Amino acid sequence: MEIKNICCIGAGYVGGPSMAVIALKCPNIQVNVVDVNQTRIDRWNEKDLNKLPIYEPGLDNIISKCRGENLHFSCEVEKNISKADMIYISVNTPTKTEGLGAGQAIDLKWVEASARKISEFANGQTIVVEKSTLPVKTAQTIQEILNCSNKKKNNTKTFHVLSNPEFLAEGTAINDLLHPDRVLIGGNNEQAIQSLCEIYSNWIDKSKIITTNLWSAELSKLIANAFLAQRVSSINSVTAICEATGANIKDVSSAVGADKRIGKHFLNPGPGFGGSCFKKDILNLVYICNHYGLNEVSNYWQQIININHYQQKRITGLIISKLFGTISDKTIAIFGFAFKENTNDTRESPAISISLELLQEGAKLKIYDPKVSFEQIKKDLAPNNQTLSHPPKVNNWEFYNDLYDATINADAIVILNNCEEFKDLNWSKISKNMRLPSWVFDTKGFSNTTEAEKFDINIWSVGEG
Ligand code: NAD
Ligand code: UDX
């Protein structure tokens, strides 16, 4: 089946960039990205490309080439569903906050709402592609919902559901989409699988396109994220051993990673993993294991999250203890609020939990991040933020556009992500701004802190014994 018109439901961090790349590489396909969030769509349609709703290196370039040609953003969900031969579901799948499975299971209400719309408004033969990360067997639920339209109205619509999980990482999304390690397609209809393979083979070598059954594709995505997060928790657990014994995490990680069987990637220490995916996907895996009575397996994966939490707590405890056991009325500069460099995304950022702990202890924070807006930080640290387990008692923080200004009268600086600007800091200038004794806590071991020592600044760098 030749695909001429694609509709993607969900114009977020995955839907936006992945459809932009399909539009770029398949000029003969019309790609419509739809969303219920009008503000988000308006920002995708902004003339000023600096105002796009998400920041990804290279994205603005593609948008300027394709938008208005074969790439369109709108809130016209029903109309665009009805025109499409292929519909991607790329909506949010957060952890449930209430009811059965709260705190672990995935909330599928947005996926279900999308399937119901497709069932009602799609025409003829439609391929439905799961792009969101989903619990294993969700394709079965989607197929059942899709089939309802025929039962009720005696239609003769045909739907084939495929699983095509997305492996892009934020901050490198465009490069990951243009040059993926693999594309995974799960399905049980050969013709539908081939239609999707043909789209990707416009720019991806066929040897990199893996086809499996539906359940293997759905599960592989959860397992890939669990393995990546496991490496981060493993290396972070080793930082504590290094600090206790006098070993150095950089030496240990390069010595261990030099073994080809282990590999050097994803062995960088930090304040714990953030981002919208790792935690929720592992919690989902834990939930699925429990559902099937695999309690030992679920306990094993749960430990990845426990270590992540431990690392964040360990770092805040350490900051307080180095600052003579109290940070009440002390000023702390936070460098980096996004969960990683090159993104404006703060979801599950370690900066949120660490900032909240510091605020609870009475510190005043001066926050700097080149990609994150004041409005976003305000939402994340708001005392009425329902998603926080312990909202701050006080909103004693300020936002800075200049990182050096943020260090004026600061007792400490806490570096929380690998933003390029933090790599080579002017410590002479910073030391003059700070109050004595001054401290730098480099939770990523990323900055040129050996320079800082020359200016009488005390340094704590993660995993340096
Ligand atoms: P997101 O929150 O940025 O975007 C989802 C969008 O879907 C939102 O704009 C929301 O308004 C829209 N939406 C929800 N229900 C809708 C409906 N019924 N009709 C129309 N629009 C609707 O989420 P995201 O980060 O793009 O993630 C989407 C999915 O992709 C999730 O399952 C996630 O786990 C997965 N994923 C994310 C990443 C990542 O790096 N963010 C990477 C791989 C996979
Ligand atoms: C992740 C997966 O990498 C991606 O394949 C999937 O599609 C979505 O989830 P993302 O969360 O965007 O992508 O970023 P990633 O680069 O994986 O980083 C996640 C977190 O782990 C960040 O907080 C990052 O700082 C941290 N991390 C990563 C480390 O602390 N050390 C590392 O070595 C790597």
- Name the hetero compounds present: nicotinamide-adenine-dinucleotide, uridine-5'-diphosphate-xylopyranose
The count of domains is 2
The arrangement of helices and strands along the chain is EHEHHEHEHEHEHEHEHHHHEHEHEEHEHE
| Order of adjacent strands in the largest pleated sheet | 3-2-1-4-5-6
Helix content: 40-55%
- The secondary structure category is alpha/beta
CATH names the topology of the largest domain as: Rossmann fold
β-strand percent reads 5-15%
How widely separated are the two ends? Answer: 60 Å
Rg (CA only):
24 Å
* CATH homology-level superfamily of the largest domain: NAD(P)-binding Rossmann-like Domain
**What value does the average pLDDT take?**
96
Q: What is the second-level CATH architecture of the largest domain?
A: 3-Layer(aba) Sandwich
Sequence stretches where pLDDT stays below 50 over 5 or more residues: none
CATH class call of the largest domain: Alpha Beta
Q: Please outline the major beta sheet.
A: 6 strands, parallel
